[in-house]
């Protein structure tokens, strides 16, 4: 089945992964900016990273017929350096009219600190001033519930924000309802060591329905599985769900969300 992975960090993956994903039906993907595993030292480090995301990764994906899109930001883990964060936020507009850039992300909270909130709000302001869509990272494990509530409150306090143009990722059983009820899109991240399994994701589809719901692999430099979305497709089939419902979650929903970005030019496979 053709599918789109809306959250995958391909800079951390080898070219063979693009080939494998293409063979499994992946025809499109979006890659949010994230933490490199170490804090970058300067705004120029981010500028180079954004060039990699917007120039080289689309090319590498294209070798296998996969369409690659990206989101730009400074990650919450690096937000404790507020002055560097502000330099990066001021530099991001250099890239916002590049084809394939879908918006600002993945922004959010990590340890739910004051500085993280400051940098999150300044990213929101940039997105509103430049009319960009937003992709949100919610914290992991013990910080998730509180961090998700803080993020949703900050989003809802900004009356400029169109909630239908915001995707909140890494939802789990205890946060998904809050995200969907407030009118945002929700992304379930499938992960071998933390976050959500394919079976738990199927449970959430059964409980909440497919409306504004996406599924992604996150595939990054840690233990992760870039082919997790095909695992979800198989888990849905094992439970007897129709192909139309599966296709809605893994293909039509990401397309509907991405199409709201001016940088999204998509060629359906023929
Ligand atoms: Zn991520």
Describe this protein's structure.
- Helix 3 (82-91) packs parallel to helix 4 (114-130) and helix 7 (198-208) crosses helix 8 (228-238).
- It contains nine helices and eight strands.
- It is α/β, with parallel strands linked by helices.
- Helices cover 42% and strands 16% of the residues.
- It has helices at 15-23, 43-62, 82-91, 114-130, 144-157, 176-181, 198-208, 228-238, 243-258; strands spanning 3-5, 26-32, 67-72, 101-108, 133-137, 166-169, 185-189, 213-216.
- The protein has one domain (3-258): Metal-dependent hydrolases (TIM Barrel, Alpha-Beta Barrel).
- The radius of gyration is 17 Å and the shape is globular.
- The site of zinc ion has 7 residues, from loops.
Topology:
Blueprint: E1 3-5, H1 15-23, E2 26-32, H2 43-62, E3 67-72, H3 82-91, E4 101-108, H4 114-130, E5 133-137, H5 144-157, E6 166-169, H6 176-181, E7 185-189, H7 198-208, E8 213-216, H8 228-238, H9 243-258
Parallel strand pairs: 1-2, 2-3, 3-4, 4-5, 5-6, 6-7, 7-8
Helix pairs in contact: 3-4, 7-8
The structure holds zinc ion (ZN).
The site of zinc ion has 7 residues, from loops.
């Amino acid at each position: 089945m053709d599918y789109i992975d809306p959250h995958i960090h391909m800079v951390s993956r080898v070219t063979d992964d693009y080939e494998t994903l293409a063979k499994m039906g992946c025809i499109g993907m979006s890659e949010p900016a994230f933490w490199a595993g170490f804090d970058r030292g300067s705004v120029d480090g981010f500028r180079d990273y954004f060039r990699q995301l917007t120039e080289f990764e689309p090319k590498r994906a294209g070798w296998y017929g996969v369409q690659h899109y990206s989101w730009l930001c400074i990650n919450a883990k690096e937000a404790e350096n507020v002055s560097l964060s502000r330099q990066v936020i001021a530099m991001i507009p250099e890239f916002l009219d590049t084809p394939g850039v879908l918006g600002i992300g993945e922004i959010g909270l990590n340890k739910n600190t004051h500085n993280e909130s400051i940098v999150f709000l300044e990213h929101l302001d940039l997105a509103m001033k430049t009319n960009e869509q937003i992709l949100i990272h919610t914290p992991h494990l013990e910080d998730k519930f509180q961090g998700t509530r803080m993020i949703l409150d900050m989003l809802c306090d900004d009356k400029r924000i169109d909630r239908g143009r915001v995707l909140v990722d890494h939802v789990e059983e205890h946060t998904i309802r809050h995200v969907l009820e407030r009118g945002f899109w929700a992304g379930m991240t499938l992960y071998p060591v933390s976050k959500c399994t394919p079976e738990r994701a199927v449970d959430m589809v059964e409980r909440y329905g497919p409306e504004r719901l996406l599924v992604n692999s996150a595939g990054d430099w840690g233990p992760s599985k870039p082919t997790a979305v095909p695992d979800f497709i198989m888990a849905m089939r094992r439970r007897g769900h129709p192909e139309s419902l599966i296709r809605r979650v893994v293909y039509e929903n990401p397309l509907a969300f991405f199409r709201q970005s001016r940088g999204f030019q998509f060629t359906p496979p023929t």
